[in-house]
Amino acid sequence: MNIKFNNVYVEDVSTVAGPFVKNGPFKYDSIFEDFYDGEDTYEKCEIKELIKSINILLNKTNKKQEDISFGISSDLMNQITISNYAYSKFDIPFMGIYNACASLCEEILIASSMLDRSKDKCAICSISSHNMTSERQYRNPTEYGSPKPKTTTFTTTGAAAIMLTNKKTNIKVQSATVGKVIDMGIKDVFDMGSVMTPSAAYTLNKHLKDTNTKVEDYDLILTGDLGKYGKKLFIDYVKEEYKINLGDNYDDSATMIYDYSNNVYAGGSGPSCLALVTYSHIIPKLKNKEIKKVLLIATGALMSTTTVNQKMSIPSVSHAIVLEAI
User: Fold this and answer.
1) What's the rounded mean pLDDT across residues 42-69?
2) Is the N or C terminus of the chain more exposed, i.e. has fewer CB atoms within 10 Å?
């Protein structure tokens, strides 16, 4: 399903980056040095950073809380706890959503659908993840020090937010493609690239068919967090399954976010991975018209602690958004 938007634009973005991420190749609005940032738990740290990203965005856009029509947010914690606590500090109507690491594009899709039918309104889409909170919930607590295979991705620590508006700016949210849940029977929590590749490939193919576009129509096609091995698998999979040849205009944010001086395995992961790369690196390129059209495909593994412990397979979903410089 593809949805075309006529009246939704990007006003501004904000980024907050933590350990490992801050040492990567991109510049962020704010950084913090360790996994606590002055708090006594990892979870409180993540809440703090999400709040910070929203406040930075409000300051950059000269908006007050009462100017915001609604906020949509997501994170990886059970019951999207981080987002719930963060928005309790704001007087902004709030919707929490969860599609794991596919949530970034789902947020923008939902907000754009609402704004496209409104006048003089704006909305915040925010997102966060934290290596320590996520790893101990979905895999092994990092304190165990257990060895992990090379296909493992290293959850990014940070938060990001985007202000969408129906007042014209120089970046338009052009369209969105809704993905579908695909379960290939994979159970390995240390190989998210293999889990998410089929849904990312489906969404790419669906988007190109529904919009009657080709790979070369985009200056950049960027997947969320397939990682180093998942990226290669994705290239091979779409060629074999859908006869799509990805060229030099394809990349994966998980392979871009770190400088690899630390042991980050196959690269980044987590819902903030695609957001931090897009908002710090891709949005400025669109603003400067270095690139004109970008297809973002956010990739999500739909697992829970309970289903993992029960040795169930891991389904996946991917959603896509097109951003265009105008």
Assistant:
1) 97
2) N
